[in-house]
Amino acid sequence: MFTCRVCGGNELDLVVDLGIQPWCNNFLKLNELGQEPRYPLRVFFCNKCTTSQLDYTVKKEIMFGDHTYLSGITNSLSEHFKDIAEVSVNRFFPNVERSKINVLDIGSNDGTQLQHFKELGCNILGVESSKTTAKIAIKNEIPTINDFFNKKLADSLENKFNIINASGVFFHLEELHSVTEGIKTVLDDKGIFIVQFLYMKSIVENIAFDQIYHEHLLYYNLKPISYLLDLYGLEVFDAYLSPIHGGSMIAYVSHKGNYPQSKRLIKLIREEEVNKSNEMITYLNFSKDIDK
Predict the structure, then answer these.
(1) DSSP β-ladder status, 248-255 and 234-242
(2) What distance separates the 2 farthest-apart alpha carbons in the chain?
(3) At 63, which helix (H) or strand (E)?
(4) Strands 218-219, 39-46: pairing kind
(5) Dihedral, CA atoms, 101, 107, 109, 111, nearest 10 degrees?
(6) DSSP strands (E only) in 95-203
(7) How buried is residue 190: exposed, middle or buried, by Cβ count under 10 Å (0-12/13-18/19+)?
(8) What is the CATH number of domain 12-291?
(9) What ranges do the domains of the chain cover?
(10) What whole-number distance in Å separates Cα of residue 225 and Cα of residue 235?
(11) pLDDT tens, 125-183?
């Protein structure tokens, strides 16, 4: 039996079993037909920290070493990223000279998010694992490190960052704890970390089981992601639900004690409690809805 990716506990129960499946972005060449590797696709619920997660890991080098997804081809996503950049800078650093605001994007893809920060005059840096995608960003004059972000890479960076962004990345992480520790390391004392993730409460309510695939190792509500961040002295202080990607949570994170919890965050946490979003019975009912 595997241990929980977040808390390390062994109190896990199978709640969704989608059988043996290929990983979804493995586009085949003609001579590869019939040779596609397949892996178990199962969701387990941790009774200790309430994180839902896959038990089987397709290695990150296989899935993300040369990823095919590009952020810049989706206009609505680019507009969402533009809004994130403008709100982050204007809300949290209104009196800071733009050229002195350092921004790090983890899983920066083709640089679309960083392009909007660049247009605001910020100093930018991306970290992107996919070789081809990183080359596109660099060609577009977005400074990019072609590597996987983790604590070791964080220790090699010279600057602290006022804004760290991770969009659609945090649920992919094989090196979850190393990445979180790395963010803690390079986040400026008064900096903010913006984590954008598929919201499991929405996935369950929409019966969006197509969001369950091997790249998505973890499925967060606010309660389990707060449990993870708390281990590293970080905390969510504000959050809102965006329609992007069928229902994503945009959470603002800081070092503990820097900001009070917002009213809308408190409301979202309360809604999770009322709807039993972090209880196993909800996941078992979700599985029955998938079967139907």
Answers:
(1) antiparallel
(2) 59
(3) helix 60-64
(4) unpaired
(5) 0
(6) 102-106, 123-128, 144-146, 161-167, 187-198
(7) middle
(8) 3.40.50.150
(9) 12-291
(10) 9
(11) 999 988 888 999 999 999 999 999 999 999 999 999 999 999 878 887 888 999 999 99
